[in-house]
Amino acid sequence: MFLFTAWSVKNMYMPKFNAYDLNGQTMASHINRQFATRLAESDNETRQTLIELERLGREKLKDIQNSYVRENIEIPVQIAGNIILFLTFLAISWYSFETRDLKELQKKQIELSIKPILNVFINHQKILYVENVTENFTKNINIKEIETKDNTYNFTIEPNYISKPHLGTPIKILKNGKDQINLNDFLTDISVGAPENEISTIITYEDIENYEHKAKFIIYNLDNIKQSKIKMVY
Fold it and tell me: At what angle do helices 44-69 and 27-41 cross, to 10 degrees?
């Protein structure tokens, strides 16, 4: 409105002309020069009015320019910046998850590369043995006790480690924590009332990096002690 008013006042003092005349001079420069000439010829009151309208027009034009810059430059730039920040956040999050998965994979690979595998078996002398079937060092071998209705059976392994592959170590069987018994007596005792003619327990052990591993070994065919066997479940 202010711009229109200022332009209307200017137009009162100037004749109409094309945008490009006056020896190539633009309309804007011509308007400014003519406006200054008319302003100098006006009385004080008219001059003050024209100056105020000019000031208001320039302020309005500046507001329009600022609004244009804010709406067409600053806001799009801000939106673009927010999009870039969001995409950066997604990239960092994805990288963090990938790094975590990679670390977990590396950890599992290390565990597998140093993991010993134990095998519990009955040798030809009817002695319960445990052996390491890999070349990886193992220690802290423990077998969970077996409880029946009347007795508890504990297992001891000495030494409690296996440093060489395919090296067997005998397992001692203790009845109620004190009396050492042989394998036949042990099988005879546990065969009484054993469900499905088998019984199982857990063996735990550690590798050289102190990772703990475990497996289940099952003694089956208890209805025929001479044919009793052991199978491992990992």
Answer: 150
DSSP H or E run through 47: helix 44-69
- Higher pLDDT: 18 or 189? It is 189
Centroid of chain to Cα 50: 69
What would you report as the CA-atom Rg of the chain, rounded to the nearest whole angstrom? Answer: 48
Question: SS3 of 221, please?
Answer: coil
Enter the tokens of residue 22: 């006056």
Task: Give Cβ neighbours of residue 190 (< 8 Å, ≥ 6 apart).
Answer: 146, 148, 153, 199, 219, 222
Give per-residue pLDDT as tens, 148-185.
888 899 999 988 888 777 677 899 999 998 889 998 89
Kindly state the DSSP code that residue 126 receives in the 8-state scheme: S
Is the pTM of the predicted complex or chain greater than 0.85?
no
Other Cβ atoms less than 10 A from the Cβ of 111: the count is 13
d(CA 43, CA 41): 7
49 three-class SS: helix
CATH fold, domain 115-233, is: Immunoglobulin-like (2.60.40)
Average pLDDT over residues 30-34: 57
Q: Give domain limits for the chain.
A: 1-114, 115-233
